[in-house]
Amino acid sequence: MHTQLITWGLFDSFWARKLLKSYWDYGDINYTILTFRYIEKPGAFCVNTVIKAHSDSSEPGRALVVYFEWLTRGFAPTSYSFVPLFGACSKLGDVECGRKCHGQVLKHGVESVLPVGNSLIHMYCCCGRVELARKVFDEMPERDVVSWNAIVDGYARFGDLNVAHMVFDAMPERNVVAWNAVLGGYWKGGKPGCALKLFRDMVGMGMKADSTAMVNMLAACGRSGRLKEGRSVHGYLIRAFTELNVVVETALIDMYCKCKRVEVAHVVFESMAYRNLVCWNAMILGHCFEGNPEDGLSLFSEMLGRPESKDGETIPEKRLSRPTEGRGGILPDETTFIGVLCACARAGLLREARDYFRQMINVFHLKPRFAHYWCMANVYVGVGLIQEAEEMIRKMPEVAEDLTKESLAWANVLGSCRFQKDVTVGEQIAISLIDMEPQNIAYYRLLLNVYAAAGRWEDVAWVKEMMKENKVRRLPGCNLVDLNEIVHKSW
Description:
Blueprint: H1 2-7, H2 13-25, H3 29-37, H4 44-55, H5 61-71, H6 79-92, H7 95-107, H8 114-126, H9 130-139, H10 145-158, H11 161-170, H12 176-188, H13 192-204, H14 211-224, H15 227-240, H16 246-258, H17 262-271, H18 277-290, H19 293-304, E1 325-326, E2 329-330, H20 334-347, H21 350-362, H22 370-382, H23 386-399, H24 403-410, H25 424-436, H26 441-453, H27 457-469, H28 483-489
Antiparallel strand pairs: 1-2
């Protein structure tokens, strides 16, 4: 149809609008943007559509470029122009661009339009400027449930949980989104007990929880090791949901593993109708960190769909590319190999650890990171090969370039895979991390773990004193890292 319109000379602004909307409705962002380039005189609708397309693309900053470029060409923005612009600023986390667009809102007199105000609140919250979001909220001539949800979520994620709850209590009406914002804020802020109490209030008021709420509650139970409450949440799931999706089932597995009931987690795992890489990782890490490490290695082989030889050695495949599915199974990612290498460290399997480390690089084309070197160093130290462990550490900066980004998420998770016989290697790693980022609480806890495992309590006291001198304060919940954060933030 597009070709015929061009051939017949009918590709004017009217049909261009129709085509742009059609491409956008079908989710073809790239073709929407391409079509826009060939419209001679696009109106406000066409410009707004392409701004929205850029905002939803992998390069949201282009939305800002298009907006300010077309301003110079006489474009008159409407309220529909600013909602995707603020969405782009939210994705970028760029508060300065957001404030410039806020100035454009005031200049063009659309600050009283409800969707614009809501998107402004969301943008400032995403950029961590909750005080500016609250100012917009307080000055809004009218508010709806989206406005309230946005400010509650902002306080819960980036501000004060007490204020978040106060605003939540003041809401004229609450939907499940508002409940989820406060629930998520509590467990991520290191207050799982408050989250569970609020969940009981929610159920008691007749509000049916959704999948997000259930994942939040299972994470709260897992992080705090509350098996009894976790079972109650599981019971609610059975009563209230006719079927569970893979996200909730994975959260169940993670909860039972963190509560050291790996055998129950495995029952849930075996009952799943569909399994993706995340749930396989949850179960493998559960075995490797909290259960029998050999079971984790067996499950790893099962995931790959590979047979095992009589002596238990996995039969390798040829070099593979990186699709999600391999021949006969799911291909592992970096997280999978952290569990596998940790299992080798716990079980003292040096030969197997070396094999897996080589497979990770040469077969699955995965780049080793901080956690992989940490586990490998543990394997060497565990069998008395201190020199090899130190050599492994010397290799680490050469390959694991983005060390500080990922080690934050793994510093506490690897507590079950820490140096038992000689702390020199672990000490070197932790101190080097502290030198690179002296205000990062996770690295101090890593060093505390190393000393505590060796019974060096005077050094534990020294680290705590060093934290005071460096004015490093405890961050709420930073010692509790769940599987979702590992998979979606670390890599």
